[in-house]
Amino acid sequence: MVAYRYLGNSGFKISEITLGNWVTHGSQVGDDAAIATVHAALDAGITTFDTADAYANGAAETVLGKALEGQRRESLEIFTKVYFPTGPKGPNDTGLSRKHIMDSINGSLKRLGTDYVDLYQAHRFDYETPLEETFQAFADVVRQGKALYIGVSEWTAEQLRDGHALAKQLGIQLISNQPQYSMLWRVIEGKVVPASEELGISQIVWSPMAQGVLSGKYLPGQPVPEGSRATDEKSGATFIKRFLADDTLEAVQRLTPIADEAGLSMPQLAIAWVLQNPNIAAALVGASRPEQLADTVKASGVTLDADTLSAIDEALGDAVFSDAENTYEVSPKQRVA
């Protein structure tokens, strides 16, 4: 079964492997398969589920809500996010203004079929809205009982400090950040993680398998597999491009004997690696078929020894992205229309 970890400096526990439905539910995968995958996650001990109002323009939340019907609500941890355009995508259907946050939380709760979410997250930083306005709205959402905790996604160290200070002033808890993180993409280690450790903020990391590249299925000098994420612009093809250079793919292939020596599959090694970082509360995984989770969940509770960690670093070498400046390039300087 999947182990649990505390989220930030709180008494709230989540499953360290969390099911996300970014590019699957409501778009890439049919509803029946999506619901079966959620049920498989529950059977495997995953009780934490992450979505966003912008995923398939609300359809992903609706599918997740259907999949969780009949489950004991108190035994689940349901996360969603706000920022990106939703609905008809009008001028106030995006960003972190008070209006958009208040409209969005109500829409998310209706689609999810629940009275509250456990964690409500700012999907990106909004440079066009005063931070005080955003956090006052979040505080009101919490006081209305519509969310228990507040989190963010892909915020810089400085943004985390400013947000944490406002949250504390308003009497609410900012306990998480949701950045990209994997063996290949380590940009949060330089500034974001140290700041988060100081503030009592955990990371819920997405793409722990570097968009599937760390599975080893993408081979140097070979066309990308048909039907893979790299061939589908709706399934994260933009994000995977940075990892498809031949020298990166060659480095990934050097991980295979390391995984074999550890008695792990390549996906298990990738997920176990991110969970070795004590600031990581959970690795977000996706699945288009129920059987994919049977392999993934076995990474929970795995401890990689120092020799294995050193071997991974040596194998990947210069293929690793570690420049902390990349954390300043994620949130758009203007709202996405």
Automatic annotation (TrEMBL):
Any one Pfam family match given in the protein's UniProt record, by short name: Aldo_ket_red
One cellular component (GO) term of this entry: cytosol
Keywords, comma-separated and alphabetical: NADP, Oxidoreductase
Keyword Nucleotide-binding: no
Keyword flag Oxidoreductase: yes
Domain NADP-dependent oxidoreductase per the UniProt entry, residue ranges: 16-315
GO molecular function: oxidoreductase activity
Domain of life: Bacteria
Gene3D superfamilies for this protein: NADP-dependent oxidoreductase domain
Protein family (similarity comment): Belongs to the shaker potassium channel beta subunit family.
Protein name in UniProt: Aldo/keto reductase
